[in-house]
């Protein structure tokens, strides 16, 4: 399957056009576009998970360097929040979608039938693996050009404060400011095969559950849980009190209940 796709000059040239980059070593491109599910159907296929690892690191360095140079007065906390709002699953998947790269991802027929080419996690992972492939083939400057070209709008919006994704920091700031005590995260569940894991995490204030979230990575699940907590906290902070003897969080004079207090708030709007 991989050879058939990449032996098509028309398809190959189209991918090069989309990426605005021509590979010297085409095998790097093939590997970057190969989803783990394909190894069950194609002997000796190399999937892209190692490239995701490398691409994530290259992306982090490039974005970190860029925002570091923007303003010398940005402190570490501000830089971390800014970077996390750019280097996140949502932004990377959006970039892949705009490129139209989803239809060229090589995956098993079952995964295709399950909508694999439109899955946010897969699209985000492919964007990272493409960064790695370009880096290995053409060096850091080509990888940097690819990153800045395709994430420039997201970077501009993040700098202007028009996007927000670091809900973990926000939740911590809200709770710490009110009660002088932070929140903590717990892994609640792991589901699915290795190449398609779904993690469920909960964010807790002492024993009170404030949010539940899912994601293809633990950190994404925690961000999702924190986002749910932020919706509740931002709307109801003045109605929350704590019993320090029992470490119980109260809402309108009764213990916080996740199902009746948090979920119902989250369904009405986002932070």
Summarize it.
This protein folds into 2 domains: 2-159, Ribonuclease III domain (Ribonuclease iii, N-terminal Endonuclease Domain, Chain A, Orthogonal Bundle), CATH 1.10.1520; 167-266, Double Stranded RNA Binding Domain, CATH 3.30.160. The protein has 271 residues and is of the alpha+beta class. Helix content is 56%, strand content 13%.
Describe this structure in words.
With 271 residues, the protein is an alpha+beta fold. The protein has two domains: 2-159, Ribonuclease III domain (Ribonuclease iii, N-terminal Endonuclease Domain, Chain A, Orthogonal Bundle), CATH 1.10.1520.10; 167-266, Double Stranded RNA Binding Domain (2-Layer Sandwich), CATH 3.30.160.20. Helices cover 56% and strands 13% of the residues. The chain contains twelve helices and six strands. It has helices spanning 2-6, 9-19, 26-32, 49-70, 76-86, 89-99, 109-113, 120-138, 140-159, 167-179, 218-236, 258-266, and strands at 184-191, 198-205, 208-215, 240-243, 248-251, 254-255. The strands form two sheets. It has a three-stranded antiparallel β-sheet. A hairpin with a 2-residue loop joins strand 5 and strand 6. Helix 4 crosses helix 5 (76-86), helix 4 (49-70) packs across helix 9 and helix 6 (89-99) packs across helix 8. The N and C termini lie far apart (45 Å). 38% of the residues are buried.
Structure summary, number of beta strands: 6
Largest sheet strand order:
1-2-3
Q: Quick one: CATH class of the largest domain?
A: Mainly Alpha
The geometry reads as: globular
What is CATH's topology name of the largest domain?
Ribonuclease iii, N-terminal Endonuclease Domain, Chain A
